[in-house]
């Protein structure tokens, strides 16, 4: 590894140490001024979107408590046969909003009280209920309505009154919303793409209403009512209106987060306390330190000099993992801490495979540098095969392409994300860093 790569590695280590450290305030000598070396919140703008990184390890409900919210789902306007599907969709969409990547560890339940449906939401660490309500976001109830008329008689006078009737096509069938611009006026519009079931409903709806208005309502407000010219089979629609670009972007984000099929109303909000507490966190961290030291002692005792290198790579693995947990906002529950401790042991697997291969080569070759080089590269095939298979499983579980038969958010997705991060970090520290330190020690070109 050349000097530039060693410098980049040093910078990465320094940044990770800075990320792991708590809030840092330094007072300038002989003055009362304070310099913030580590802010409470880090804001980064990526592709025009602002991301906020919190300067703290986020603990789960069991370790620090949080906010409890209870929402009522208004099912009065739904057909009886659609209630179960709509309420389940509402529960899933709320989870998607607060836990899209599966690392926030909320507790979300659909409750039935007689004929009333409610959703209970417990969010870790969010002890300000107003922030939690804002996190869940707008209702964003999207639906399409058919044009109807009825004759109204009053005395001797009569009139034909137009009105719109809700159809089966609602936001629960929405696959994707995109910001587009009208080619003639340049005004922002929202393009909608429905899933397979929504596509069929939309095709039937447009075929039935040719030469008639088909209204699009958002939160019971009429946005537009274009006249259907022909049957639309591709499941695409466009929302037009007097939007600013910022309003259109916000609407697209809300729709993509999930358009609730039913209105919701906040019934209850309160703070919940931790079920386990600080003592359990301290015991878990102590167990983690003992576990890490035990692995290092074992590696040094068995592999001597190479074991020290493994200890360095393990220490860096733990450092990089904690830095990522803080920056990505991954919530650690008690089981999550146990998983992290377990991953430390798993991270040393690559080192053991490499060192055992080196020992085999030493028995064949008296040249130490050559044995190290040959053993290292011969161990790589087994390491690659095992880790590539694991990463493929993580990709399937994370489901980036939103296949309907796979999980689309929640704890499974969170498990896949954290496991993939652990595998990638383990490869980086157990292979890349180990290799370059060994090359330096044995002066291998």
Count the beta strands: 17
**At the fourth CATH level, what is the homologous superfamily of the largest domain?**
Multidrug efflux transporter AcrB transmembrane domain
CATH fold name of the largest domain, please? Multidrug efflux transporter AcrB transmembrane fold
**How many domain regions?**
3
SS class = alpha+beta
What order do the helices and strands follow?
Answer: HEEEEEHEHEEHEEEEHEEEHEHHEHHHH
Poorly predicted runs: none
Gross morphology is elongated
Strand fraction equals 25-35%
**Could you give a short account of the major beta sheet?**
4 strands, antiparallel
Task: Describe this protein with a few key phrases.
single chain, 445 residues, alpha+beta, Alpha-Beta Plaits, Gyrase A, domain 2, Multidrug efflux transporter AcrB transmembrane fold, 3 domains, four-stranded antiparallel beta sheet
Question: Can you put this structure into words, describing what you see?
Answer:
There is one protein chain. The chain is α+β, with helices and mostly antiparallel strands and 445 residues long. It has 3 domains: 58-139 and 267-272, Alpha-Beta Plaits (2-Layer Sandwich); 142-259, Gyrase A, domain 2, CATH 3.30.1360; 276-441, Up-down Bundle (Multidrug efflux transporter AcrB transmembrane fold), CATH 1.20.1640.10. The chain contains 12 helices and 17 strands. The chain has a 4-stranded antiparallel sheet. A 4-stranded antiparallel sheet has the order 10-9-13-14. Helix 10 (349-364) packs parallel to helix 12 (411-441). The mean pLDDT is 79.
């Amino acid at each position: 590894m050349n000097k530039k790569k060693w410098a980049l590695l040093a910078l990465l280590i320094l940044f990770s140490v800075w990320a792991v450290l708590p809030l840092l305030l330094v007072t300038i000598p002989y003055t009362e001024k304070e310099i913030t070396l580590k802010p409470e919140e880090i804001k980064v703008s990526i592709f025009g979107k602002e991301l906020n990184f919190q300067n703290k390890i986020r603990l789960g409900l069991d370790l620090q408590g949080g906010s409890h919210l209870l929402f009522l789902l208004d099912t009065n306007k739904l057909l009886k046969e659609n209630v179960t599907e709509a309420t389940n969709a509402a529960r899933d969409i709320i989870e998607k909003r607060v836990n899209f990547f599966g690392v926030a560890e909320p507790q979300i339940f659909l409750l039935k009280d007689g004929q009333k449906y409610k959703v209970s939401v417990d969010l870790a660490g969010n002890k300000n209920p107003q922030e939690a309500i804002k996190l869940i976001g707008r209702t964003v109830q999207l639906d399409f309505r058919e044009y109807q008329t009825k004759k109204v008689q009053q005395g001797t006078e009569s009139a034909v009154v137009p009105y719109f009737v809700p159809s089966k096509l609602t936001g629960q069938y929405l696959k994707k919303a995109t910001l587009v611009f009208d080619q003639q006026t340049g005004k922002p519009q929202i393009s909608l793409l429905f899933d397979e079931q929504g596509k069929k409903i939309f095709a039937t709806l447009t075929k039935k209403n040719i030469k008639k208005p088909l209204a699009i309502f958002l939160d019971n407000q009429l946005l537009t009512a274009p006249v259907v010219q022909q049957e639309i089979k591709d499941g695409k629609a466009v929302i037009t209106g007097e939007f600013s670009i910022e309003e259109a972007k916000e609407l697209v984000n809300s729709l993509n987060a999930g358009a609730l099929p039913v209105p919701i109303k906040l019934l209850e909000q309160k703070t919940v306390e931790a079920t386990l507490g600080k003592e359990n966190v301290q015991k878990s961290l102590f167990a983690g330190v003992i576990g890490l030291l035990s692995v290092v002692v074992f590696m040094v005792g068995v592999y001597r000099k190479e074991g020290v290198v493994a200890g360095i790579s393990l220490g860096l693995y733990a450092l990089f993992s904690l830095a990522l947990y803080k920056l990505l906002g991954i919530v650690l529950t008690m089981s999550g801490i146990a998983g992290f401790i377990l991953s430390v042991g798993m991270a040393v697997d690559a080192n053991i495979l490499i060192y055992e291969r080196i020992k085999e080569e030493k028995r064949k070759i008296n040249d130490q540098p050559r044995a190290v080089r040959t053993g290292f590269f011969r161990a790589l095939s087994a390491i690659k095969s095992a880790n590539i298979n694991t990463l493929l499983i993580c990709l399937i579980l994370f489901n980036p392409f939103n296949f309907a038969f796979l999980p689309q958010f929640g704890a499974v997705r969170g498990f896949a994300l954290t496991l993939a991060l652990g595998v990638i970090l383990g490869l980086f520290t157990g292979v890349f860093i180990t290799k370059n330190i060994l090359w330096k020690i044995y002066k291998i070109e």
